[in-house]
């Protein structure tokens, strides 16, 4: 039976026969002995197999090259060399799949992150992406753990939807109509009644509205699924396909929503610090020596809470020159958000009460009628990581907001039913999963925290 490298390195039980399978990272040595370094993905670390020339003449190891897959049977022994506690004294080495060292794209010298994006199908074999993917996994698991422990139900919302709920015009259309000669109605427009669903459909930009329906029955729910936005911006924090976590809680108001967001984020960062210590240490040493201290600053400090209006005052008084000027009523850019977090407060920030014009129709109006009960959570190195709000539970006010923002009420009649029948105050938020992984790994670009990133002009496989 195969043992993982991770379990062998942690093993106290020496001088027994083991079988390890993995990919060769390197082979070196002399005419008496060869050292084969193997990684199997279970950990950032590798195990060293020692092949003596008596058992393994040089010729027999010619295919044991960087990138090849191997099965090695041998004795697990204490290592003489420094850098590792144990090693495998090889008795039998089988090459499962050869790799030509001349053409193998992952050479031993470090490959740039930009180049790795072009060979995304091989990226997981690098130390960096192995670490990122294990951390990504742990965070996904931690998210379900947190909600399960707090009495939330996981609901699955549709990926193909029939409404443009956010109204931001970033939708990918879903259609089975022929692009060349689609059927047309009498007035010449495309006849979507002949499309697969009998109407125009698109990929979801958020599961929130459907999540709200479930919250109005189950109390506390969350979604965790893929979302799609035709973002035309080429930034380090936007993807066209990303995963979003959206809790929605009946009876919660804005203050409780902020408490939930803060507790949830701190839990997740702590969860990663505890479970991914080796991978985080590797990323810290390799790329970003501030990573671990930055993560601890999030778990150890209460988030700063202030209103949008107060933030605008701070930004206007700031000595720093911004690319985009700030004025009350404009949406904040990442440079502004990061200034507040990294320079001014030096801790995560929660901004509330944004002007209603720059926020979605479903947010509850503040008493002044000018701002809404929105909350954005801003993180160092990222800016906005969470966007949320208390929802407008009053039917008439919601209808008025929809009209004001040109949201078609007839298309959202199903949503309005929650306010017609047994409405309650409620609140929720959306956490971009890749922004969380970006923060926790300290990778500089969101394209490097998802296995197969989708961004403009990039959907290779
Ligand atoms: P931004 O201002 O950065 O464009 P947003 O305000 O448009 O974000 P929301 O609609 O509030 O985003 O979505 C909730 C969360 O989803 C955001 O706080 C962010 O974490 C994440 N998110 C939004 N758009 C993207 C994207 N294109 N790629 C990755 N994550 C995203
Ligand atoms: Mg956006
Ligand atoms: Mg935003
Ligand atoms: Mg937002």
In whole angstroms, the N-to-C terminal distance is 34 Å
List the total number of helices. Answer: 12
Q: In total, how many beta strands? A: 16
Beta-strand residue percentage: 15-25%
- Percentage of helical residues? 25-40%
Report the CATH topology name of the largest domain: BirA Bifunctional Protein, domain 2
Bound compounds, each kind once, are:
adenosine-5'-triphosphate, magnesium ion
Sketch the major β-sheet. Answer: 8 strands, mixed
**Widest sheet: strand ordering:** 6-10-11-16-15-14-13-12
Can you give me a brief rundown of this structure?
The chain is an alpha+beta fold and 461 residues long. The protein has 2 domains: 2-97, Beta Barrel (OB fold (Dihydrolipoamide Acetyltransferase, E2P)); 124-170 and 205-448, BirA Bifunctional Protein, domain 2 (2-Layer Sandwich).
Would you kindly provide a written description of the structure presented here, covering whatever features stand out?
With 461 residues, the protein is an alpha+beta fold. It has two domains: 96 residues, OB fold (Dihydrolipoamide Acetyltransferase, E2P); 291 residues, BirA Bifunctional Protein, domain 2 (2-Layer Sandwich). The mean pLDDT is 95. The structure holds adenosine-5'-triphosphate and magnesium ion (3 copies).
